[in-house]
UniProtKB/TrEMBL annotation:
Gene3D superfamilies: Hypothetical protein, domain 2. GO terms for molecular function: DNA-3-methyladenine glycosylase activity; metal ion binding. It comes from Kocuria tytonicola. Keywords: Metal-binding, Zinc. This is DNA-3-methyladenine glycosylase I. GO terms for biological process: base-excision repair. Transmembrane segments: none annotated. The keyword Transferase does not apply. PANTHER family: DNA-3-METHYLADENINE GLYCOSYLASE 1, DNA-3-METHYLADENINE GLYCOSYLASE I. Zn(2+) binds at H186.
Amino acid sequence: MSGTNPDLVVGADGLARPVWAAGDPVLREYYDTEWGMPVRDEAGLYERIVLEGFQSGLSWRTVLAKRPAFREVFHGFDPDAVAAMGAPDVERLMGDVRIIRNRRKIEAAVTNARATVALREHEGLAELVWSFQPVDTPRPERFADVPTVSPESRALSQELKRRGFAFVGPTTMHALMEAIGMVDTHLVGSHRRGSSGLWPDRA
């Protein structure tokens, strides 16, 4: 354990991680290298929006395990390629056991690709998403301190829906904001706290 905080575990490498990322090697690798790091490119943000949508109601571990297959069937999350997919493609994916076979979520991936392409005529997906970055970030010490929604995630959700996106509810968008470093919800004491470089004075 890390001090008296049961939500943190010190691994054999001497680094403190939250319980959810301490045991499973897939989650540990994701936590140590990717979660909470800034993502500012269109394809990267589109991928994470889609995957956060697929995660709704499921575990993130399930999504991570299937991410290679998702990347294959969604053409490397190239918005142009996915935007060109139609009903036959959706039916084909509904029969692909390697992915999460949820029709509404698969259709949302296509819908969101088309919305992403349409945004290029305006500010673009990356600029739109990052315009909702809050002025401060939480400093959670325990899991109970980590918010699951925020005024900014509600506003981002509303704006993305207005722009034609689907499966972008406030809780899902808050998870996105955590995943791409817009907020830092690494627990205080974790070796990854402050790793995004966006909140150095609040680590």
